[in-house]
Structures are given as structure tokens and as C-alpha cells.
Amino acid sequence: MDEYTRPNPEQAALLTIDTQNDFTLPDASARIPGTADAVPQMERLVEAFRSEARPVIHVVRLYREDGSNVDQCRRQAIEDGAEIVRPGTEGAELVAELKPSGSMSLDATQLLEGTFQEIGSNEWILYKPRWGAFYSTDLDDFLSERSVNTVIVCGCNFPNCPRTTVYEASERDYRIVFVPDATSKTYNRGLDELENIGVALMDTEETIEWITE
Length: 213
Description:
This protein has 213 residues and is an alpha/beta fold. It has helices at 21-24, 35-51, 72-79, 108-112, 139-145, 161-171, 188-196, 204-212; strands spanning 12-17, 56-60, 117-120, 123-127, 150-155, 175-183, 200-201. A seven-stranded mixed β-sheet has the order 3-4-2-1-5-6-7, sandwiched between helices.
């Protein structure tokens, strides 16, 4: 780390990526192996950020029934009737462990319009239409307005959405922390590649100590 890449805990926000029931629960329609195992670490990170009153943004996917907003590699399956993170279903909801309260649910209409859904003090949900959290969203402006220059990334399925989000953040000159043990499907070569672009790798315990010290 140097003066350009060193993460700043006082200007940090946590991004959880796609940790929704359909990708996580054992009997889910699109379960990603390892996501349920990473949820306890994500929960600890979220609680630490809440306790420090630092921003938390839960980034989610929502697939319309007609497939009109679905990435090309999954569109045919949705058009053929697959029900994956369909708006208004329990499968689209954040896993219970990450919710600030059991009664909280996604406002799909608001999210699909591109609006951040506020679910707690300094905590929001954001819908993203593709892999990365910055693609066709207002996330960059949202973070800038809150003087955030560091993002901590964790969540579901490293090869796709978390990794893309990290690279998009790097393109926008954010300082970045990636938390492998709070993310499913990480692998060593991918982690090496993140370090090569100046991403700090920390496990959950290190991240909590860093954000709360």
C-alpha cells in the first residue's frame, strides 16, 4: 500500500454483493456454493459498520419475469420460466442475517427505478442491472456525496459480481479492501490479480479490527 492505494477506515463504505435467498439458501433455485458459509462473516462485517455508523450498501439483482432487464447469459432461462430473484418474491430478498430487522423487505419498484432504498441509519439497498455495482447506477455519485474514498467488498460469487465491482471501483480511483472469507467462490489466482492492482486483502477479523480501532 502507498499513499494512493492505502484504504482509509474513516472514509470507508461496505458493499455486500448479491447475498440474496435465491443465491444462498440450501434449496435455492440458483444457489452458489459457499455463499451460505460466507454469510456469518458478512454479518459480522455489517454489524461492525453499523456500530461505527459507517455506510453499508447491499447491492442486489432483480430479474423481471419477462427477462427484459436480465444479462444475456441468463435471459433465455428467465424467458423460459426460471424464477430467480424475481421482484416481489422471497427469493429476491436479502438473507435474514444481513437485514437490520426481520420485517424489512425490498421495495422492488423503487429499486428498479434506480433509487436507493434506505433501510436503516446509514444503510441502503441498491439494484444493479449487470455484474458490477457501478454499471448504470448512481453508486459513484452516492459515495462521493458522502466523502467515501474506500470501499470494502464482500458477497456472492467472486468470479462474477464482486470481482467486477472491485475492478469498476479501481477504474474510479477508489481505495479498495476485498474480504475473501466473506465472499463465495474466491480462488488464489484471482486474489493475486487483485493485489497486483493495489487492492488490500483482509479477512473478516482484520477488517473489523481495522474499521473499529
